[in-house]
């Protein structure tokens, strides 16, 4: 089973030099939502996953980790 990995999102964001506010603007959401996703408090919606994959030019599957 796979689970969204917020730490990967945080690393991607930092590697691109984006603040949480900047990423939130690109995803059309609040910076607090980005924070919640990065800290594993919430799972992103399908539309947010698609947006993240487009912003970082990666497959959506790269945002998930195996979870047992």
From TrEMBL:
Pfam families: HTH_3 (PF01381). InterPro entries: Cro/C1-type_HTH (IPR001387), Lambda_DNA-bd_dom_sf (IPR010982), TransReg_Diox_bact_type (IPR050807). GO terms for cellular component: cytosol. It comes from the Bacteria. Residues 9-63 form the HTH cro/C1-type domain. One of its GO terms (molecular function) is DNA-binding transcription factor activity. The keyword Transcription regulation applies. This is Transcriptional regulator. It comes from Bacillus thuringiensis subsp. medellin. The lineage of its organism: Bacteria, Bacillati, Bacillota, Bacilli, Bacillales.
């Amino acid at each position: 089973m796979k689970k969204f990995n917020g730490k990967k999102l945080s690393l991607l964001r930092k590697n691109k030099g984006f603040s949480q506010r900047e990423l939130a603007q690109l995803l059309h959401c609040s910076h607090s939502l980005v924070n919640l996703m990065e800290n594993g408090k919430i799972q992103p919606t399908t539309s947010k996953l698609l947006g993240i994959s487009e912003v970082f030019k990666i497959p959506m599957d790269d945002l998930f980790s195996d979870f047992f």
